[in-house]
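[agent] plan:
  1. take the single chain provided in the ticket
  2. run structure prediction with default settings
  3. attach structure tokens to the ticket
  4. add a short note for the reviewer (M.T.)
[agent] executing step 1
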Amino acid sequence: MASKTYEPTPARKVAFLGLGVMGAPMAGHLAAAGHTVTVYNRTAAKAEAWVARHGGAAAATPREAVAGAEFVFSCVGNDADLRAVVLGDDGAFAGMARGAVLVDHTTASADVARELHSKAVLRGLHFVDGPVSGGEAGAINGALTVMCGGDAAPFDAMKPVAMAFARAVTRLGESGAGQLAKMVNQVCIAGMVQGLAEAIAFGESAGLDMPAVLDVIAKGAAQSWQLENRGKTMVEGRFDFGFAVDWMRKDLGLVLDEARRNGARLPVTALVDQFYADLQQRGGGRWDTSSLIQRLRK
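[agent] step 2 finished; step 3 output follows
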């Protein structure tokens, strides 16, 4: 985990549910910032390994993990995974004390965020949807951008704690607004990566020195995070890192479902989603999303 300077905040008792590629380093930053952290992971060995590295404690169920916690953070795979760790007799809601806040960092649907917010209110709890952007590197460096939906008071209470793994934590509206903002983020990324892939393929076909071209255009209006962080690796054909195609397809599925409900027209996003489906069929489900260029090479 990368070093980070943490803003002084009172030590809190917190829980973290889900220790995957994103969750493990996020929870690590909470521990490094001085908070008392109890973790839960579906595969218990991962939780035990996390405790061996960071301290704290591991619990056998979400309900046990959240006992006495003021703030509970979760980062799992999808809507079904989220319901599994939050609801039911062994879920987080069953073990949280009244007034505690659950902040979910899963990229999930706005519908499940609203559902869990409503169920939290009935129990005297708080729920904030807070999907993140910044990828694995952002989680490791404690530099994630967190887009939040939910009530203002619990958001304000949890923000100083979440800053342990973030560079920005912003409330964008009521429950579900965080998930909708993450969908906006993924629409932008899908279009930018496809545009970058086409640009590089065009330049290669024209016989240009593409690393040199990328250096030049990065200083002008074409500059973007994707160009600066993925351009040269796309030229080199390296895709064994970063945000996987499988994950992007899951996210774009959420986007397209929401667009069907709200009437938004997303022709480019729908097309890029099919391009990613093609990469999955080629065995590239675990390649980085920048692998779109592989479809364009001769």
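[agent] step 4 note for reviewer: Residues 253 and 285 are 15 Å apart (CA to CA).
[agent] ticket updated
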